[in-house]
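Team,

Forwarding the record for the chain on the shared tracking sheet. I've put the sequence and predicted structure together so nobody has to dig through attachments.
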Amino acid sequence: MQHIGHLKLTDEELQQLSALIYKHTGIVIDDEKRSLIINRLQKDVAAHGFSSYYEYYKKILEDKSGFMLSRLIDRISTNFTYFWRESDHFVYLKKVVLPEITKKLEKKGRHDLRIWCAAAATGEEPYTIVMVLKEFLGFRAHEWKHDILATDISSVALEKARKGVYQKDSIEKLPRELWKYFKQVSDDSVEVREEIRRQVLYRRFNLMNKVFPFKGKFQVIFCRNVLIYFDPQTRAQLADRFYQIMEPGGYLFLGHTETIGRNNPHFRYVQPAVYQRV
């Protein structure tokens, strides 16, 4: 049993909250992540003056507006990221994936690149992808429709992403040629330029939705550092849904510690954390 101030988090309360979180997000909270629950939720519990975690849990169930549940999800979902994270993915995107896909599309007389960032967090990943696209397309950029769909379960993270303002040191790992896509707004902060920001469409979306309601299919999906929070069954279901909304030959990028297995019938293993739809 663990304490928060004078409040105890009982095993039963941990199970109730874990089940609720799993049902709505697919995130598995086991005993190892017990301290995560405590660290993330103690402020909410204290701020509302709840006398127990069960009372907090009950309030979430009773709240018909969904606001309390939404706050719980914002607290639990991890939104740690930075520009040029797992940089070899962006290099591979520019050198291999984009040349291959654009060539294929041009043969069909198409100029519509569709890329989805399925766990956009605070926006560093989708903005980086747009910059890489701009560098790759160069003077041909105006010939292509290349907007990015960026979704996340956290409305708080998405709000920050839309603003596009970051600490100056967060772009340190970016190649220097990409710094031109930012403008300095203060001594220690930068803003993503409007031309990049307007090419990303942000939407709140839960990957646990049984149906992905997208009109067209994607050639590239980034879903990095999310699967580590899911159990094997949820990972397999998600891979099936990605398969259904991807064009044949499309590429799926995962986080470097993640895998959908080399024997997945829908995807061919290309290199660590990169798969191609069969």
